[in-house]
Give the backbone structure.
Amino acid sequence: MFLTKKLILRVLALGVPMVAAPTWAADLPMSRDALFDLESEADKPAASPDKGAPALLPASRDALFDLASEPARAVEKEGPASREALFGEVSPGPGKQDAGGGGWHGFAQGELAYTYASPDHWSKVTGRLELGRRGQWANGMQWNIGARVDYNAVFDVDHFYDSSVRNDQGSEFLLRENYLDIPAGDWDFRLGRQHIVWGEMVGLFFADVVSAKDMREFVLQDFQLMRIPQWATRAEYFKGDFHAELIWVPYPSYNEVGKPGSGNTKGQYGSDFYAYPLTPVGISPMVLREKKPADSLSNTNYGLRLSQLANGWDIAGFLYSSMDSSPTAYVVDKSIPGVYQYELRHKRINQAGGTLAKDLGDYVLKAEAIYTNGRRYNVTDATDADGVVEQDTVDWVVGLDFNPWTDTRVNTQFFQRIYFDHDSDIFQDRLENGFSLLLNRKLTDKVEAEALLVSSLNRSDWMFRPKLSWNFERNWKWLFGVDIFSGPETGLFGQYDARDRVYSELRHDF
């Protein structure tokens, strides 16, 4: 497309192995195939006869006003064997795990990324190891423990970033899912750090309201890496095809958003995908700090979700009240000429929504709608004291997943956000429309090509992610891909127009 001589040299530096397939395609976040969420069979580690526990599965869906994704497994013509098989529940709820214990499971992964847009630089040289273990006691109670260690050597080989970015992303120890499951008849209880994934869509996370996310690479990470577990109490009730879920999150996790550049001003080598606030014309933003809510009863999150499977239709509705996991930038000081100083804050929002999914034979139909009350947006009005305005919204999305040819999968989705009492000083139009298109093709038994396009229909603002994956050995996978952004600086994707990159990943599951 535009692989210049310089870019080709950078690609070679990433250590791309020679593969007989001429095609490539895009990586999906949230397990590793990020924007359309359901991993292929080849992504799963093969079972070992001496280990009774399955490998820890990726959490599942997330993003586009939060965006992300992963390829959904094609639905067999003869119909799914269960509700989970049809709707892709990848993180089992309380009481739904396999019985028994097992050895350690997890994955080891190496990642390289090079930003070829000016200024070009190495953006990731990361090694990570995740370990987990689960088991069951004689009384039926089950447990799960997990942790991950990341080290990004890019700060050792390329001194491009500000020191605050190194401190934030250089090395990390992360607790993953650590919980206890307690069965009680028709009820199951899960206590501890856990993923709670709501919603039926492939890749668009409107209804995935409970999860916090690591947004330091926008939606480019595998969903398994991007989703942040919540410390929560979760009660689930099962009766036939009816399912009720009550959750309380006493110590909420919040989105990881990265660090701004040197001096906190825009464009001076902060995190590549730091989302700077919208400002009036001629004003530069300076982000001073993030103020997270204090640990108190009034700042806890809570919600209810009810679902019913009837005549092949999976229909669910939910209510959720939370401290917004995504921060909003508030103006706190205008004393410096041409500069507004901001503080990131999290305010309470209330959400109500519904989801549906249906296997139609040759197609799988999915849809979501969600109303959000209380979220704030930045404005361009220089006279506004704090630089934000509250806007209630409705998001809805509908999508189809189908297989037009053998070994080929297509997913297409249309989404819209509606702003009530629309304020003309926010960047967004009253109706924001967009679409996504995923094409996946299995080239050989071990090689897959994929391409993902997500675009606004209001303006020329899009993201394109082609990638090639090669399962060259059992439980081993290599990826090569490109992430391309285009659009106005104020656009969801266009703000990262100078962040185009090539990347390579090597992963071993065990």
Notes: The mean pLDDT is 84. The longest strand covers residues 121-136. The radius of gyration is 22 Å.
